[in-house]
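Risk register update: the risk that structure generation would not scale has been downgraded. Supporting records follow, first protein first.
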Amino acid sequence: MSLSYEPMSKIHWADPYPIYRELREDAPIYRSPESGTYCLSRHADVEFALRQPRAFSSAGMQKALQSTAGQRPGLRDLMAIGRFMLRARVNPLVSRRPPNLVTEDPPLHDDIRAIVNRGFTPRRISALEPRMREIVDECMARRMRGGPFDVVGDLAVMLPVTVIAEMLGVEPDRHRDFKRWSDAIVSASTGGNREGGLRAVIEPMGELRGYMRHIVRDRRVHPTDDLISVLVDSKNEDTLGEEEVYGFIALLLVAGNETTTNLIGNSTLALLAHPEELSKVQADPTLVPRMLEETVRWDTPVQLLFRQTTEDVELPSGKIPNGAQVALLLGSAGRDPAVYEEADRFDVTRSPRPHLGFGHGVHFCLGASLARLEGKVAMEALVPQLPVTHGPRLQPELIDSFVVRGPRRLVLQPAS
């Protein structure tokens, strides 16, 4: 078989959809030759795995992220670890890896999620909309003044970073630090080169934790109405421990930023590449929510997740043995013609069966409603400003990551 695919390889990042098609048709349960990872490409198999958290453990996600460090820690890594422990006030004799919703299984996952759900109730999310519109108006003012406008840097990054930082009670002058930490963690843990060893992840994590430490401890004593207070206020029956709070903050910083940023970026790219669809949305702005869902199906911001089997598993397409590392190709599942008619066509009027782009089951994305609202507010403002052209499709540089997908920059020139 000439088919060759490695989920962590950069070879197919520019356009992974042709190889996804080959996998679905010829090898729906494909074992990659280098890493030995079992890759699931069909919607039925991916959905099955997501619905079976006991058989498909999230420990596989932790294993994949840890493997990015690659080599054994060197002297510079050990020095970075020492700086991290000093900055974060970590005692190496009693500390452990912070629990994380992405890498934990039930029942611990469910216990943590029940607490953090308090900060993501429909009421809390909907209450953020007026502030989101203020932020977007401030971002779009740059476009209205003329000159080049970077959809990513000037809008798609600024909106979620500002919202999350304000949710956490972070000072405005530290918002850019939040984005810098997020970029460093994503690149170091899921990038194609993953150079820099452990220190490339540890150093930004240490800065983040060192900065957040005083906020977390202050909110335990003097709670306010921010998200940290919701998680640690002793008036609540259950609260997160300090390590759990740091794990959640890191997850929110990375996943919360990247999901929305890439949703906006990928939506913009899709509309520019399909001027007829852009015209439909410009004529009928009520199509924006449907267009966003179509983007998540057609070019999902999170391309894959990892799991590890805890038993022999019989999938719709075949068997996987116990102890296997498994890649769930969400990007491929969204283009499966067995589920979606004309699956490779981007259609802003489509009413598809619910996609898997935000996950499924117990690990359904906690921030999906936040990302959807941010995307809606941003695209309602941006779509009228997009040029309807029939030129060649833009091919911007993409984020360096095997997990998340989106443009690094997407510059619009001034309207003529």
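Supporting record for the second protein:
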Amino acid sequence: MASGNKSTVGETISVVIQALLLALVLRTFLFQPFNIPSGSMKPTLLVGDYIFVSKFSYGYSRYSLPFGPNLFEGRIWGSDPERGDVVVFKYPSDTSKDYIKRVIGLPGDTVQLRNSVIYINNEPVPREQMGTYSETVRGTEQTVPIYVETLGGESYGTLDIDTQPGNPVDNTKVFAVPEGHYFFLGDNRDNSADSRYDVGFVPAENLVGKAQVIFLSLEDGAAAWQIWRWPLDMRWSRLFSGI
């Protein structure tokens, strides 16, 4: 009897170890889940969204592995992101932090914002007002216009909350993107720490993967493990929507 119990325990441990190894392989080489903790990518991504990021989209670097061990430099089987991709990357000055923004400038590009309009290589990115975005902030409902940009053949919404003339956030110097680096912006243009500020240019090695799909979305303040809150706090319309 005791021998049978030991055999059952051993089989259970073996199954658990195999499951953990499979999860590690999937997370390292295929898809990694992330949650959105801030509003810097509104209206595309909201606080409480949970997304899958494809690790294979741009190949693999040291940051594809857990804890980012310094085993090799550069990228293996690398491919370049396209303008407009939403990408998770390691914050250049502290690679323990993950950021998510939209690729705007590729290596060799010049990027500048003039009165909220992005200019890439001195050409304006098409932009038009289309609809509004509403949310409640400290008990007060705020409604702001959504500006739809078209970049790389894809269209997406952005927020421009502060439209005062001369706003330095919307009027920048010219950024010349170095080789092997990328320029990122958040879609919530007046509330995003991105390449205009201390994020700066992001090395290709720091790219983690491309944001692909929202698999879970909960109202701000609800934790994913609080399953009993899902029926009321779930944003059902956002489930399994592409990014």
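The longest helix spans residues 2-29. On this basis the risk owner (M.S.) recommends closing the item.
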